[in-house]
Structures are given as C-alpha cells and as structure tokens.
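To whoever picks this up:

The nightly regression suite flagged DNA-(apurinic or apyrimidinic site) lyase as changed. Nothing in the input moved, so I suspect the structure step. Input below, exactly as stored in the fixture:
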Amino acid sequence: MATAMPAGFRALPLPIAQLSLAAVLKCGQSFRWSIFPLPPAEQRVLDANVPTYEYRLCLRDRVVCLRQSMDTLFYRAVFPPTVSGDHQEREAETLAWIRDYFQLDVDLVDLYRQWSLADPVFHRVRDRFEGIRMLRQDPFENLISFICSSNNNIARITKMVKSLCFTYSPPLLTLPPPAGSDLTEEPYHPFPSPSALAAPEVTACLRALGFGYRADFIQKTAAMLVDAHGVTVNSETTLEPSEAWLRTLRKMSTSDARTELLKFMGVGRKVADCVLLMSLDKREVIPVDTHVHQIAIKHYGLRGATKTGAMSPKLYEEVSTKLAAVWGEYAGWAHSVLFTADLKSFASYGLSPSTPSTPSTPALTPGSVSSGESPGVATPGSTPVSSKRKRMQSKRVRSKLVEMEETLAQLATAVEETLPTDGDSSLADRVKRRRRGA
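Regenerated output under the current build:
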C-alpha cells in the first residue's frame, strides 16, 4: 500500500533498512532534533506505512522537517519570511543536505551484511536494529555537544544544548506543531557560532544555566578557536573561519585530527573520538567508555575491569583495536548499532512485526553516565531459563550498585556547580572513582 504524501512535503524513496529516524535521532548522536507525535486524525488509519512522528532541526537558514514510512522519507524546509531566491534551488539544497547529513551514499544494508558475516554477535541483532547509521554533523556543534556529554545523560545534554541555542543564537523563525496537535508554536534557534560563545562572561552565564564545570570548557574552547582563526564571516559559506577550519580536519589523518581536537579544553580521548566519528568522516573510530568495554568483555573476549575501575589509555586502545579488527573499515558505524542494541531504553525497539518502535526514554550516548543500563547485547530467547534466573539476580545486584553510584554522582554534580573545578576531572568523577576503589 503506497503512502499518501503529507501536505507540503516531498518524497525520497528510502527503506527503513537504510535509515531509521526513530533509532538514529534518539541514540545519542545529535541533541537538537524536536520530535512530534503525529495525531491519529492526521494518520487517518493506524497503518504501518503511515508516518507517526515528525522530526525537526533548525539549520542556519531553514528548519528541516522529516517524516518516514517504511519505504519513503518525506521532507520539507521552512524558511524565514525574508528569504528570497529560486524555490527549486532551495529545495535542491535541502535534499543535498539530507543526503550529506545522513550519509546516504553509504549502502547500510550491504554493511549490515558484511558485519553479519564477520560477527555472529552482530548477526543476532541485525534484523531488530536495522537502519542505524552515523550522522555527518557540523563539527563545531558536535564538539561543543560532546563537551557537554562529560559525566552526563542524554536528557541533561539535550537541555544544555537547547539552552546554548536559546541564549546565544537569535530565533530564525517560529513554527506551529504538526496539524491537529494541541501544542503551541515554538521558536527555532540555530546552533550558536564560536564567536557567540567565546566572550569571558559566557562562563558565568552557563554556570547559572546549570552547565557546571563544562561552562568553562565551552567558553575556553570557543575562545581558542576564535583567537586562532578570527571571526570574519565567509560570505560564500556563512561559516566563521574557525568553523571552516574544523571542517578541514576531515582531510587530515585520524591521528592528526585527534591531536588537534585534544588541544581543546574539556576534550579527552573519548570526546575526541566521538567528534572524529560523528562529524569528521573517521568511520573506523570507536569511542570507548565503560559501557562499550562491558560489551567487549561479554562478547569479544576482552579482559575484565581494572582494580580501580578507571579506563586507562592502554585499556581504551585495547578495546578499540579489538573491536576495529572485528568490524573493519566502518567499525565506528557497527559499534553504534551494538551500543544502541544494548541500551535499556531500546529494549522494545524493533519487536513490532510491522515497524520499529520509538524508544520511550532517552538513550545514552558514548561519554554519558550509565543510568542503570545493563551490559550486554539483548538477544531474546537465546538463554536457558535457569541461566536467565541467575542472570536476573546478578542484574538486580548490579542495578542496586549502579543506583547507589548514580545517587552519589548526582549529589556531587549538584555540589560541583557551586564550587570551583581544578579542570582535570569533575567532583562526580572523583566520587565515582573513590567508590570503585572502596
């Protein structure tokens, strides 16, 4: 049954196996997409081939709106009233952005086939978690977003990123929600430029907004970029020189680009690797945190945690190298599928016989605090009942420990926002390390 074209949208034939918006836009890669459930009246019938959500993102000069059926991606762009120019040209620009942002030149179905042949673990999850691909984001937005991700969860990262946009970027336009919704109109703000975040007073403002020690990292990173590259706007691309420079890292080797990223405040190996993978075309890079380490231990023969529980550079490299050897050139992409499949918030994803379900709670991102997520890829039906009972008991114990640790971390985070930081690690991190060492 063909999908009816939503009013004002254009259609791009694209099966969910190549791109699942319900997974890709909620698995911790990007934090600025607004997601609106579509009213049943607009759907007319509860059909698997009728879009159930609309996704919106504000770019520099337009808001892109997306909907998806099983075999089609519907898109439209909304411009400020002052924008002029050829309508067809603007539509072509929007389609070009979609193809670039979702990297649609990469055949994801073929990659899934390759990974399934090379990895039995991947083979077990491939059908449930189809359509998960890496975004190609703006490097500056990606960098600042993942500085926010340190010792954090997706809900709070999203709140921080939106606060940045609302505070330091003027609204581009205001849009009503999809037809039939009782929600009110909301303004859409682009991501702020480096120069907007570089002023010294930004730190105090961000601390007041709840950024804690990350406020200083954001301001100093933006200031480093502006000081090194200036603020004159490039009339052809509308990028500031520092933003344009960050994009040149795509042409560097992975090691050279990582070296440049590690110079910025608040950027360690994990944050740098997230930026390399998600905005700088380094498809082989695997960001490693304790969650990924647990997946590697359970399924890929890696050794257990260290006595201190810390992720040493040597262990980080060991996990990354091992997983890259399994998945090959696009290892970072494969890692994202396994990471998503292992998340508690995606426990019911893909279980419907007709369409993927949208996670009801935010997923975690590489670099965030695990909020009770249990390690290991979900493979329902593969474990005997007695073994399952033992695992459930073990999980309950681990869950209690995680809850205790997270409570301490949350208390520490609340305290740290009123205290100066030494710039090396957060108070929450130090509390966690002490607890692991206890």
